[in-house]
């Protein structure tokens, strides 16, 4: 039998934003950007004239399901990020938090800063700036139903698992292979329990925390456009996607 709180979440997932549970976004933007090779934070690089992080923040600003935003960044970037908030019309409550030594540490700091009223937390990479309010809505509504959901996309190439020496070990069934993206959305009590039970600071995404305690995470297909700006070649790819979106309007 479903608990009262689970039934309530299901009802909210099928209703409008007025019924949605309080949801906080944690935007992780504290990475060193070593693979970008430009000596500056990739979140502050401009994509078609707008900083990467500003594009990310605008999507969460425009989402009717997000009540507040916590940005986790390098201390040296905080002043510039504060200026972005005003310049690009981010009017929702925002907290800036200094990041930690690892991504996992940074997310913990961001999660600790969300409102005590938040029932769900949406954890998102600041450099995944092509996220849209529609994608955010899709993942959040799945999380309200299942208590844990993640943006992801399917693969079209044949997937090989390699040996440590770089030879093919086996071929995976690509129908079951997904690439994890963000946002990754969890009920706050579930995420808090996972943090208390899993002490591995090397995890590369937050789904792994939930997986480690045996709770299923719902995969939500957000397509290949929801890419993360990581290397220089990602910028022209992202610009092409933006151009294609503008052409459809």
Query: Main β-sheet, in a few words?
Result: 7 strands, mixed
In the sheet with the most strands, the strands line up as: 5-4-1-6-10-7-11
Class inferred from helices and paired strands? alpha/beta
Compute the number of helices.
8
Total strand segments = 11
In round numbers, the mean pLDDT is 92
User: Helix coverage percent of residues?
Assistant: 25-40%
Radius of gyration: 18 Å
Order of SSEs: HEEEHEHEHEHEEEEHHEH
N/C terminus separation: 46 Å
- Any idea what the shape is? globular
Instruction: Quote the beta fraction.
Output: 15-25%
* Low-confidence residue ranges: none
Outline of the structure:
By secondary structure, this protein is of the alpha/beta class. The chain has helices at 4-13, 52-62, 78-87, 103-112, 133-146, 188-197, 207-212, 234-248, and strands at 23-29, 46-47, 50-51, 68-73, 94-98, 120-125, 148-154, 159-162, 168-172, 178-187, 218-221. Strand 4 (68-73), helix 3 and strand 5 (94-98) form a beta-alpha-beta unit.
């Amino acid at each position: 039998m479903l608990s009262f709180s689970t039934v309530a979440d299901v009802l909210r997932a099928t209703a409008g934003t007025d019924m949605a549970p309080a949801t906080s976004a944690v935007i992780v933007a504290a990475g060193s950007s070593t693979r970008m090779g430009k000596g500056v934070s990739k979140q502050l690089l401009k994509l078609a004239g707008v900083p990467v992080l500003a594009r990310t923040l605008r999507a969460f600003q425009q989402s009717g399901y997000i009540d507040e935003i916590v940005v986790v960044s390098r201390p040296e970037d905080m002043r510039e990020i504060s200026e972005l908030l005003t310049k690009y019309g981010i009017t929702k409550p925002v907290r800036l938090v200094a990041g930690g030594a690892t991504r996992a540490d940074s997310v913990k700091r961001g999660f600790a800063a969300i409102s005590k009223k938040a029932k769900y937390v949406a954890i998102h990479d600041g450099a995944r700036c092509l996220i849209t309010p529609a994608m955010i809505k899709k993942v959040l509504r799945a999380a309200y139903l299942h208590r844990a959901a993640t943006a992801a996309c399917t693969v079209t190439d044949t997937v090989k698992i390699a040996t440590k020496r770089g030879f093919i070990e086996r071929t995976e069934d690509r129908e079951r292979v997904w690439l994890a993206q963000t946002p990754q959305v969890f009920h706050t009590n579930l995420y808090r329990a996972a943090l208390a039970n899993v002490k591995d600071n090397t995890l590369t995404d937050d789904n792994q925390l939930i997986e480690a305690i045996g709770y299923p995470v719902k995969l939500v297909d957000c397509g290949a456009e929801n890419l993360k700006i990581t290397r220089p070649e990602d910028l022209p790819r992202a610009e092409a996607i933006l151009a294609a979106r503008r052409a459809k309007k």
